[in-house]
Amino acid sequence: MVLDVFMIQNNYKFIKKYEDFCFGDLKLIFDFEKKIALKKLISINNNYNFIKTSNNDLFNIKVENQLIPKNKYKIEKVFKNNNKEFKVISIDFSQYFNKDFFKGRISFIKKKENIIDFIFQLSAKWKNNIPKKIVLNFPFIINFYKDKKFLKPGHIFDGKKTIKKGVWNLHEYPPSIISDNSNNNFLGLEFYDQFPWQANYNLAMHEAISNENFDKFETEVQLTQELSDIILMKIYISSNVKEKIFHLWKENTRERYDLRKYHNNKNRWIENNYLQHFMFAYGEEAFDYKKMKFKINQIIREGKEFGGYDSILFWHQYPRLGLDESNQWQLYKYLPKNYKTIKKIVDICHSHNIKFFIPFKPWDIRPNESLDSHAKSLEKFIKATDIDGFFLDTMSSLPKSFLKIKKKFPSFEFCSEGTPREKRQIEDLTSSWDQIGDIRRNFKVDINSNFFRFIFPEHPLNLVSRWSVGSDKDSLIKRAVFNGTGMVIWQDVFGCWLPFSGEQKKNIKTLKNILIKYHKCFFGDSSIPLINTLSKKIICNEFSDSTLKEKIYSIHNFSRNEIKGKIIKLNSEVKKISQIYGKNNNVKIVKKQNNFYLSANLDINDLILVNIKFK
Amino acid sequence: MKSIENKKIFINSNKYVYRVEHLTLEGTCSIDHGPKCVEIKDLFVDKYPVTNKQYLNFLKKTGYFPKDNQRFLEHKPNKSIYDLPVVFVSQKDAMEYAKWAGGRLPTDEEWQYIASGPKYLEWPWGNKFNPTLCNHDGDHLVSVNVNRKGASWCGCEDMVGNCWEWTAHIHNDGNHQFALLRGGSYFYAHDHWHVGGGARKTNYHWKLQILNEGMNRASTVGFRCVYDSK
User: Fold this and answer.
1) Using N-to-C axis directions, what is the helix angle for A339-351 and A296-303, rounded to 10°?
2) Domain B8-228 falls in which CATH fold?
3) Of A100, A369, A511, B191, which residue is most buried, by most CB within 10 angstroms?
4) CATH of region A260-517
5) ipTM confidence
6) Which residues of B touch chain A, with CB atoms under 8 Å apart?
7) CB distance B71–A334 less than 8 Å?
8) Distance from CA of B73 to the nearest CA of A (A)
9) Distances in Å between the alpha carbon of B74 and those of A18, B135, B219, B222?
């Protein structure tokens, strides 16, 4: 390996004022006159400098609330390696402050195309070996944050302001994005390797930059005598389109995951589980009180109004469990004709190509039970009834005891109530609900982009907001359409009858037919949430597979006005365009100066799907 | 061993303000929980929940055996548990007994009045919970007469804890059928998602959603009877 430059200044006064370093499309110029600051951050393709303000110190250190003056830092060493496989520039510095000795290192590393790691390391040797309170902030990041073109994760521009229109619940956080005025240059900033724990510095950075007042942000750190990693930031670069930042981040994130369980051919059926019916046992919808039997045929018939159920989740344990000692498995014995009832229902479902789930209640595990004993009970139950899946109530992870079941029954599926949040859970759980709704706080169903669905399109989600009624149910359907997800059809919520209207059923049926017809496109690996639109108050998701030959755009007008005209700039010439969801919105392609635009007339709250085939 | 005698206690007619405190964990209990003025007519009430011995006697005398017998008397009552409240009976099984005994199940309003009385006591014995006066968070059912000091204002014992008690009606909101249980039981499940167990206040009822008889019968649900005064 050849080191292009290796410069040591130990024992000498560091005299260089500036140092620049090129990372492909991005050039960094360090300002050593102002000690350790970034003078410029330039996108080489367009010669655009992302840094506009004068004070761009890379960090500030406060020791027991006293700021170490920046002119006191001594630059010890600048190390550069221009090797293609591992480009790096790092700056070592040191400082005595009130008899404590600090050493630090700032590094920028490029190992992958268009991705640069920023690493900040710090150590301290304490006088008397007693640690002091250290607080840090990062002026150069704060300057980005204060820039008018800074987008927090999941936000879009709404005129001069930004609003949040993307949500995610997993412990991978999409980058913030900063762009130039002409929208030709983009930087994504991500604080990676977060752990869901308050003492994780990167999580603190992410949360701070995602919320208000990051400019006042300070983080406390504990230093040791050795250089420790304090902040790890990834910078994603695009000198083309904003969407590339998401794509780079997604690919980089997914590389860490073992997604083999999603490629088990035996349970691929879960990919088509668009509509799941929640069959609450204690009500007229599910139970015939005169004949004392379940109305499974009627449920299946009624399901056709929604486009047909793909699975049924049978529910009779809650809210009955706990009345006596009976556990969740025993309650099946008390159904009419005990287990045979379930077996009969399952057989009927299977004859209609409908899968059947039962729930697992982790909160009901008794002192004499274990997850292993429940796994055994489940195994027996599968053998006796042929059920297809286990719904993990209140859970967003899959216990290892249950995972073994998959070896014996490869087509068996586990679906959790909560979308999995952490790596292992995302790898093991191959489907889940996308559950929203908190009526305690006057919950309103928002039509926004579910980022999880775009990062892991192979993980099927069924959208549900159990207590939503009326216009919120309309919004719920629109949210499913906007994100191209399936739904849970839950009308009897533990004894409250909250049905869908005829119109709503019709819309769900349309959604399901679209998901079937355009499955490849909707669940392709090149889909991108919240792409740039040409009109504020319009949000748009783009769905496509890796061929990029065909795309679907889900477009929502969330303004209080009708919007007419060009909505999205397209990147290629169009072969065919068709509106596949929504009323007739006069969707068309407009060509102007060799550019192609998608144009439409959108009334207030309109949501449409447009299918475009490209030449 | 001499079994206990389930005396009938007379309750004078009275008007009282019915009010049940009942927020369910999710959803609602769709009946009017008051406050509303209700009239209790003269009636007699069993001092204790109906015991195994009483119920076995009923079976012997009538030959009653439910058509749907799933879990019916699953605890197999015998002499050793004669004085325990009969359980594993559905509301229908309880009604059949009551009818045979010349009575009926108490309404939800009547049950509350019998338990709390004209002073609106929150527990049969007073306004402060005392777990030593009832079978609360126990391992099993106990004889109906072991908590004498826990008697209500009119002398009825075992009103709370030990076993839930059926009340008279099946409520139907058009889409669901449910009955109201009173008093709580000895069984106190560990999680907040479970049915709230243990002894429950006199102004509390549990909404039991009705399904088939196998699901309607439980090891913690019994009943007592009231008898209209002629």
Assistant:
1) 30
2) paralog of FGE (formylglycine-generating enzyme) (3.90.1580)
3) A511
4) 3.20.20.80
5) 0.96
6) 24-28, 30, 68, 70-71, 164, 173-178, 185, 187, 189, 191, 193-197, 206-215, 217-221
7) yes
8) 13
9) 87, 21, 8, 13
